[in-house]
Protein backbone atom coordinates (compact mmCIF):
# COMPACT_ATOMS: atom_id res chain seq x y z
CA UNK A 1 0.00 0.00 0.00
CA UNK A 2 1.42 3.38 -0.96
CA UNK A 3 1.48 6.21 1.47
CA UNK A 4 -0.61 9.28 0.75
CA UNK A 5 1.20 12.23 -0.85
CA UNK A 6 2.39 15.02 1.40
CA UNK A 7 0.54 17.51 -0.76
CA UNK A 8 -2.76 16.39 -2.26
CA UNK A 9 -3.41 16.88 -5.97
CA UNK A 10 -6.30 19.19 -5.06
CA UNK A 11 -3.68 21.63 -3.75
CA UNK A 12 -1.89 21.52 -7.10
CA UNK A 13 -5.14 22.37 -8.85
CA UNK A 14 -5.85 25.16 -6.36
CA UNK A 15 -2.41 26.71 -6.97
CA UNK A 16 -2.81 26.30 -10.74
CA UNK A 17 -6.13 28.14 -10.65
CA UNK A 18 -5.32 30.90 -8.15
CA UNK A 19 -1.57 31.67 -8.22
CA UNK A 20 -1.12 35.25 -9.41
CA UNK A 21 2.58 34.68 -10.05
CA UNK A 22 1.88 31.71 -12.30
CA UNK A 23 -0.81 33.59 -14.25
CA UNK A 24 1.37 36.70 -14.69
CA UNK A 25 4.32 34.55 -15.82
CA UNK A 26 2.17 32.68 -18.34
CA UNK A 27 0.69 35.92 -19.67
CA UNK A 28 4.14 37.52 -19.84
CA UNK A 29 5.50 34.61 -21.86
CA UNK A 30 2.50 34.73 -24.22
CA UNK A 31 2.90 38.48 -24.73
CA UNK A 32 6.66 38.12 -25.18
CA UNK A 33 6.14 35.50 -27.90
CA UNK A 34 3.67 37.76 -29.68
CA UNK A 35 6.00 40.78 -29.65
CA UNK A 36 9.05 38.62 -30.48
CA UNK A 37 7.25 37.31 -33.54
CA UNK A 38 6.21 40.82 -34.62
CA UNK A 39 9.75 42.18 -34.20
CA UNK A 40 11.47 39.18 -35.80
CA UNK A 41 11.86 40.91 -39.22
CA UNK A 42 14.09 43.47 -37.48
CA UNK A 43 16.08 40.72 -35.75
CA UNK A 44 15.32 41.98 -32.24
CA UNK A 45 13.33 40.57 -29.36
CA UNK A 46 10.76 42.40 -27.26
CA UNK A 47 13.35 42.60 -24.48
CA UNK A 48 15.85 44.21 -26.83
CA UNK A 49 13.16 46.62 -28.02
CA UNK A 50 12.48 47.64 -24.41
CA UNK A 51 16.18 48.06 -23.73
CA UNK A 52 16.72 50.19 -26.83
CA UNK A 53 13.61 52.24 -26.04
CA UNK A 54 14.92 52.85 -22.52
CA UNK A 55 17.90 54.64 -24.11
CA UNK A 56 15.72 56.98 -26.15
CA UNK A 57 16.15 59.95 -23.82
CA UNK A 58 17.41 63.52 -24.11
CA UNK A 59 20.51 62.62 -22.04
CA UNK A 60 22.33 59.29 -22.04
CA UNK A 61 21.25 57.34 -18.94
CA UNK A 62 23.56 55.56 -16.55
CA UNK A 63 23.65 51.79 -16.46
CA UNK A 64 22.01 51.93 -13.02
CA UNK A 65 19.11 54.03 -14.31
CA UNK A 66 18.45 51.61 -17.17
CA UNK A 67 18.77 48.57 -14.90
CA UNK A 68 16.28 50.12 -12.49
CA UNK A 69 13.77 51.00 -15.23
CA UNK A 70 13.91 47.47 -16.67
CA UNK A 71 13.93 45.81 -13.22
CA UNK A 72 17.22 44.06 -14.04
CA UNK A 73 20.38 43.65 -12.06
CA UNK A 74 23.47 45.21 -13.61
CA UNK A 75 25.01 41.84 -14.52
CA UNK A 76 21.91 40.84 -16.50
CA UNK A 77 21.81 44.27 -18.16
CA UNK A 78 25.48 44.00 -19.14
CA UNK A 79 24.84 40.63 -20.76
CA UNK A 80 21.79 42.01 -22.60
CA UNK A 81 23.76 44.98 -23.90
CA UNK A 82 26.58 42.98 -25.50
CA UNK A 83 24.78 41.69 -28.62
CA UNK A 84 23.21 45.10 -29.24
CA UNK A 85 26.57 46.80 -28.86
CA UNK A 86 28.18 44.27 -31.24
CA UNK A 87 25.47 45.12 -33.80
CA UNK A 88 26.34 48.80 -33.45
CA UNK A 89 22.93 49.73 -32.04
CA UNK A 90 24.21 51.31 -28.84
CA UNK A 91 27.41 52.34 -27.18
CA UNK A 92 28.62 52.58 -23.64
CA UNK A 93 30.96 55.29 -22.48
CA UNK A 94 32.46 56.68 -19.31
CA UNK A 95 30.72 59.70 -17.79
CA UNK A 96 32.80 62.87 -18.24
CA UNK A 97 32.08 64.16 -14.69
CA UNK A 98 32.24 60.86 -12.81
CA UNK A 99 34.62 58.33 -14.32
CA UNK A 100 33.05 55.56 -12.22
CA UNK A 101 29.74 55.86 -14.11
CA UNK A 102 29.08 54.21 -17.42
CA UNK A 103 26.45 55.74 -19.64
CA UNK A 104 24.55 54.32 -22.60
CA UNK A 105 23.34 55.86 -25.82
CA UNK A 106 21.75 54.76 -29.04
CA UNK A 107 23.87 55.01 -32.15
CA UNK A 108 22.38 56.37 -35.39
CA UNK A 109 21.90 52.75 -36.49
CA UNK A 110 20.12 52.02 -33.20
CA UNK A 111 17.87 55.06 -33.61
CA UNK A 112 16.94 54.00 -37.16
CA UNK A 113 16.15 50.44 -36.02
CA UNK A 114 14.06 51.74 -33.14
CA UNK A 115 12.20 54.04 -35.55
CA UNK A 116 11.35 50.96 -37.66
CA UNK A 117 10.33 48.98 -34.58
CA UNK A 118 7.93 51.53 -33.06
CA UNK A 119 5.19 51.14 -35.72
CA UNK A 120 5.41 47.35 -35.34
CA UNK A 121 5.14 47.70 -31.56
CA UNK A 122 2.15 50.07 -31.93
CA UNK A 123 0.37 47.72 -34.33
CA UNK A 124 0.96 44.72 -32.07
CA UNK A 125 -0.20 46.68 -29.03
CA UNK A 126 -3.33 47.84 -30.87
CA UNK A 127 -4.20 44.23 -31.71
CA UNK A 128 -3.80 43.24 -28.06
CA UNK A 129 -5.88 46.22 -26.90
CA UNK A 130 -8.58 45.28 -29.42
CA UNK A 131 -8.56 41.70 -28.12
CA UNK A 132 -8.75 42.72 -24.44
CA UNK A 133 -10.61 45.97 -24.87
CA UNK A 134 -8.77 49.22 -24.24
CA UNK A 135 -10.35 49.73 -20.80
CA UNK A 136 -9.21 46.26 -19.78
CA UNK A 137 -5.68 46.99 -21.01
CA UNK A 138 -5.58 50.25 -19.05
CA UNK A 139 -6.90 48.51 -15.94
CA UNK A 140 -4.41 45.66 -16.29
CA UNK A 141 -1.50 48.12 -16.66
CA UNK A 142 -2.63 50.01 -13.56
CA UNK A 143 -3.00 46.82 -11.54
CA UNK A 144 0.41 45.53 -12.61
CA UNK A 145 2.03 48.88 -11.75
CA UNK A 146 0.44 48.66 -8.30
CA UNK A 147 2.43 45.46 -7.71
CA UNK A 148 5.79 47.08 -8.44
From TrEMBL:
Cross-referenced Pfam families: MarR
What GO molecular function terms would the record report?
Answer: DNA-binding transcription factor activity
UniProt domain HTH marR-type: residue ranges: 17-148
An example Gene Ontology biological process: response to stress
Q: Which InterPro entries match?
A: HTH_MarR-typ (IPR000835), MarR/SlyA-like (IPR039422), WH-like_DNA-bd_sf (IPR036388), WH_DNA-bd_sf (IPR036390)
The protein's name is: Transcriptional regulator, MarR family
Species this protein is from: Sinorhizobium fredii (strain NBRC 101917 / NGR234)
Amino acid sequence: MSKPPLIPFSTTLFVRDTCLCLHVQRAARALARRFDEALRPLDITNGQFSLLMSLNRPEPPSMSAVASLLAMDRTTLTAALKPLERRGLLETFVDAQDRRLRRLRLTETGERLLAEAVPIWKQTHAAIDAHLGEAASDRLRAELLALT
